[in-house]
From TrEMBL:
InterPro entries listed in its UniProt record: Haem_peroxidase_animal, Haem_peroxidase_sf, Haem_peroxidase_sf_animal
GO biological process: response to oxidative stress
Keyword line: Heme, Iron, Metal-binding, Oxidoreductase, Peroxidase
Name under which the protein is recorded: Peroxidasin homolog
Binding residues for heme b: 88
TM stretches of this protein: none
Organism of this sequence: Hirondellea gigas
Native organism taxonomy: Eukaryota, Metazoa, Ecdysozoa, Arthropoda, Crustacea
GO molecular function: heme binding; metal ion binding; peroxidase activity
C-alpha cells in the first residue's frame, strides 16, 4: 500500500524527490493504521465506554499537531506482561491462502510459514495470504495460545 500511495503522490507532486515521497508515504501509512486501530479494532476490543474513559477516541474533525516532550512514551510493565500477549490467543494454527475470487487454495501451519518467510515472494503468494487473512475466521479471544507459536 505504501508503494501505491507513493506512486499517486508522485503524480500530484512531481517536484518531490524520492526521500520526500518515501517519508510522506510513510506518514500516510501511519495515519491509516492509526485510523483502523482507533476507529475499528479498539472499539471492538475495548468498547466505546472504556475508550471514552481513557480518552482514546479520535476526533471526528481536525487533528492534533502538537508535541509534548514531557509525555512518557515508554511501555508499562502491565502492558508488557498482560496486554501485549492479548493478540497471541487470536493467532490460528494454520494460515490459509485464498484466490482473489475468495476460493480456498491451501493452508500451511503457522510455524512452517514463520520458518519459511520467503514463500511470500513466490508469484502471487503474498496476495493469496492476504486474501486468506480476509477470509479466515479469527480465533476466539481467550487464554489459549496455539502450539504453533509456543513450541
Amino acid at each position: 500500500e505504501h508503494n501505491r500511495i507513493v506512486i499517486e503522490l508522485s503524480k500530484v507532486n512531481p517536484h518531490w524527490d524520492d526521500e520526500k515521497l518515501f517519508q510522506e508515504g510513510k506518514h500516510l501509512m501511519a495515519a491509516i493504521i492509526q485510523h483502523i486501530t482507533y476507529n475499528e479494532f479498539l472499539p471492538m476490543i475495548l468498547g466505546k465506554d472504556m475508550m471514552q474513559k481513557h480518552s482514546i477516541i479520535l476526533e471526528k474533525h481536525g487533528y492534533f499537531d502538537g508535541y509534548n516532550p514531557k509525555v512518557d512514551a515508554s511501555v508499562t510493565s502491565q502492558f508488557i506482561t498482560a496486554s501485549f500477549r492479548f493478540g497471541h490467543s487470536l493467532l490460528p494454527s494454520t494460515i490459509e491462502r485464498w484466490s482473489p475470487n475468495h476460493k480456498y487454495i491451501a493452508s500451511q501451519r503457522l510455524s512452517e510459514m514463520l520458518r519459511q518467510p520467503y514463500d511470500l515472494y513466490k508469484g502471487g503468494w503474498c496476495d493469496q495470504y492476504i486474501m486468506g487473512l480476509c477470509n479466515q475466521v479469527a480465533q476466539a479471544m481467550d487464554d489459549a495460545v496455539s502450539q504453533e507459536v509456543t513450541n
